[in-house]
Design a protein that fits this description.
single chain; mainly beta; 5-stranded mixed beta sheet; two-stranded antiparallel ribbon; 0% helix; F-box associated domain-containing protein
Length: 108
């Protein structure tokens, strides 16, 4: 799974920042998990990155078609993935943010 970041909206410049490989990923199962589906790593092809920490080292992933699915945290340095214990409402409405001098005021 490749993670691409839009660097320049107007110029449509994208850059590949991370690649997640299932065989190299250490999935940590939730200790109190009762569901068999939570005990195995999710299929990477069905996940989409929806947010990241400012430094880009931690990604939040979610199933692209299932709105009620769990979120997953992925540490790009240690290659560890685990289920995120807190449900984030309206995760699909998150707007990615990049530090800059650009004002986020609405332009009409």
């Amino acid at each position: 799974m490749d993670i691409w970041i839009l660097e320049d909206f107007h110029g449509q410049v994208w850059s590949k920042k991370h690649t997640i490989v299932a065989e190299l990923t250490n999935y940590i199962c939730p200790s109190k998990s009762a569901r068999p589906t939570e005990k195995t790593m999710p299929e990477l092809g069905k996940l989409v990155a929806v947010a990241s920490a400012r430094n880009g080292e931690v990604l939040i992933l979610k199933h692209q078609k299932n709105r009620n699915s769990k979120e997953y945290l992925y540490d790009t340095k240690s290659r560890v993935m685990k289920m995120f214990g807190i449900s984030i409402k309206h995760l699909e409405s998150f707007v990615p943010h990049k530090d800059s001098l650009f004002s986020m005021k609405r332009i009409s």
